[in-house]
Design brief:
Blueprint: E1 29-38, E2 41-51, E3 56-60, H1 67-74, E4 82-87, H2 98-101, E5 102-105, H3 117-127, H4 133-141, H5 157-169, E6 175-179, H6 187-202, E7 206-210, H7 214-220, E8 223-228, E9 231-237, H8 245-253
Parallel strand pairs: 3-7, 3-8, 5-6, 6-7
Antiparallel strand pairs: 1-2, 1-4, 8-9
The protein binds adenosine-5'-triphosphate.
């Protein structure tokens, strides 16, 4: 039997097309009784759901529903008040090679404006002990190769999103967590992102992304997790929802305001 993916050493060869990410036990993301209180505010309350590998899962909820807090707890950036989140069967803090297990694009991804796109990725790759050859591979994958020599201050919002995705892909991770990746993308950019996300899941990776753009979500996901006021409202296949996504969503989160 091959060793668990997290214990293997990253290499350019392994990142080539053809590697599957869901053929090992313990893949996917699993959230169990996750709760987070900030003082008197309960941002996330007793959330339990699974994010299957090899599928695209949309993470939906109104403003303030607790999505970002949940994603940050999965990534070990926020400590849960109780419960746990497992990536590939392990808590983030226990992952032997976190970059290999999960890549993330969070909303507040900051890039030094004076640095060139390629240099950002070189610095990130070096800091993570990843091969320098990955930089050009991920630039190609996100369609940023031609702009890689330009300084980030001249990048559009969509180009910054692509750079964030490139950084997330550096470690060739089995799981991707993307907080509103469609933010700032024009229609062509959204169509491109949809193709990228679907392609990543088709390779067997676990993809969890949050979005407020329901029309885009409906075209992109297989699976959905919907939260409201920190609590779970739905977890399951898109196809099992009652009616069109927008109507089902508004029914679930009380959208008659
Ligand atoms: N560090 C913090 N300190 C105090 N309260 C916080 C903190 N982070 C989040 N919250 C609160 O937790 C709740 C959930 O916020 P969160 O950002 O997780 O929601 P969200 O679903 O991602 O919202 P949006 O769609 O607007 O990005 C909100 O009431 C928010 O004000």
């Amino acid at each position: 039997m091959t060793p668990p993916r997290d214990d293997s050493t990253p290499s350019a060869a392994e990142s080539s097309v053809g590697v599957r990410y869901d053929d090992e036990p313990g893949t996917g993301i699993s959230v169990r009784g996750l709760t987070k209180r900030f003082g008197s505010v309960t941002a996330v309350r007793d959330l339990t759901f699974d994010v299957p590998a090899g599928q695209v899962t949309g993470f939906l909820g109104p403003n303030g529903a607790g999505k970002s807090t949940t994603l940050r707890m999965i990534l070990g950036l926020v400590r849960p008040t109780s419960g746990e989140a497992l990536v590939g069967g392990r808590r983030f803090a226990d992952l032997p090679q976190p970059r290999r297990a999960v890549g993330a694009v969070l909303e507040a991804t900051g890039f030094h404006p004076g640095r060139r796109g390629r240099d950002h990725l070189r610095v990130a790759a070096r800091a993570a002990g990843l091969p320098a050859g990955r930089v050009d591979e991920v630039l190609d994958r996100v369609g940023l190769a031609d702009a890689a020599g330009r300084r980030v201050r001249g990048y559009s919002l969509g180009m910054r999103q692509r750079l964030g995705l490139a950084a997330a892909l550096l470690g060739d991770p089995a799981a991707l967590i993307l907080d509103e990746p469609a933010n700032g993308l024009d229609p062509a950019g959204m169509a491109w992102l949809r193709g990228l996300i679907r392609g990543l899941a088709a390779e067997g990776r676990t993809v969890l992304f949050s979005s407020h753009v329901l029309s885009e979500v409906a075209q992109t996901v297989d699976h959905l997790v919907i939260v409201h006021e920190g609590a779970l409202r739905y977890a399951g296949p898109l196809a099992d929802l009652d009616g069109p996504l927008e109507k089902a969503f508004l029914d679930l989160v009380g959208g008659d305001r």
